[in-house]
Structure formats: structure tokens, C-alpha cells
Amino acid sequence: SYVLTQPPSVSVAPGETAKLTCGANNIGIDTVHWYQQRPGQAPVLVVYDDTDRPSGIPERFSGSNSGNTATLTISRVEAGDEADYYCQVWDSHSDHLVFGGGTKLTVL
Amino acid sequence: EVQLVETGGGLMQPGGSLRLSCAASGFNVSTHYMSWVRQAPGKGLDWVSIIYSGGTTYYADSVKGRFTISRDSSKNTLYLQMNSLRAEDTAVYYCARHFYDGSGIPDYYFDYWGQGTLVTVSS
Lengths: 108, 123
Description:
The complex is a heterodimer of chains A (about 110) and B (about 120).
Chain A: E1 9-12, E2 18-23, E3 33-37, E4 44-47, E5 61-66, E6 69-74, E7 83-91, E8 96-99, E9 103-107
Parallel strand pairs in A: 1-9
Antiparallel strand pairs in A: 2-6, 3-4, 3-7, 5-6, 7-8, 7-9
Chain B: E1 3-7, E2 10-12, E3 18-25, E4 34-39, E5 45-51, E6 57-59, E7 67-72, E8 77-82, E9 91-98, E10 110-113, E11 117-121
Parallel strand pairs in B: 2-11
Antiparallel strand pairs in B: 1-3, 3-8, 4-5, 4-9, 5-6, 7-8, 9-10, 9-11
């Protein structure tokens, strides 16, 4: 089965850049989407189709996907970016939607 | 404005049944792929099931044979019938809409989520 591996936690100082990874064998040939979830709230889409950003999402959020790793990059991190972040793909071989385990981003 | 409102959660005993509803507004549930996603307390997101606009359905292995996704176009509502409930089904259940721009094939990412409804399975 398709497994997406995310580091459980990432810490970064305000103003710095956070790189959140999502790993799987040959994930670069699939399309990856990213969600932000703040405590007690529903998830919010922050990047779709590997690199695109929905309207209303700051340009500080960007995505890339190549080889065995997809990456969500958050530039100039702010305190309000502190949240859990999940990557997601559709596995066409099993017809299952798959989420990564999530990464908790802590802003120091 | 697109809105999704889940109802039907509650405390259930193991082995029991429950039906969740997701009332949609601002769009037609039959024109979009729709999914149920759950989140156990303190855990990550866990996909449960999807229904395509054409009616095809798929399920996570953990719920296949116990849960059934459906929709009622006249009520513009998505459902999740949950049977043979287990303690490990305890979670907040979200309904979520997959993106579709009205042409071509819908995408598999979620552009709208409901606020979720809590299902607790315990004796």
C-alpha cells in the first residue's frame, strides 16, 4: 500500500524558512496536495497539484515534488503558521486516497 | 457560498450503527466527488470513503464492508452509514468536497471541508 512519510515535528524561528517533507517511492510521478490544520479546526488547502496555491494563501507557501520527496516550503515563517501539515495523494493503483502522518510545525 | 454541515455524531456502543449526514449548500453534491475523512483524537487525518459524481464508491480497507457512502440529490446531502462500529472508529468525521471546475475530470484534492462531527464508540 502507498505510504507517505512525514517527519513528526519541525521547529523553526520566526522569519526563517521551514521545509516540510513528504516521502514515498517515486512520489515525483504523482500529484501531491498539502493541508494546514490548526487545533480544533478543519484542514485548509495550502498547496495543490504539487506547486499551485489557492487564492488567499500567502506566496510564502510553495511546493515542489521530485524523485522520492515532495516538499512544502514556508518562507518567512510567522507565529500564525504554527499548525499541523498533511500531504495527500490519490493512489490510482488501489483507488485509495492517502494522507501522510502529518508534521507539527512549531514556531520558536 | 459553499458550506458543508455534518450531523449525526454521538456516543455509540461497539457493534452499533450510526448514520452521518453532510448537508451541502452553494453547490450540487452530485456534480462533485465527495469524501468522508476522519481524525481520531490526537491523531492524523484518515481517509474513509469517496463517491464519484457518477456514483462509483471506494472505501478504506479498515471500513470496507461496514461503512456505506451515499448521497441524496433531492436533499443535496451526503451520508455515511456506519455499521458494526468498533472502538477504533472513534473520531471526528469530516465531509469534504473535491475540486471540480465544471469541465473535464474532478481533482482529488479537497477545496472545502465541513466542521466535523464526533463519533465515540465505547461501552
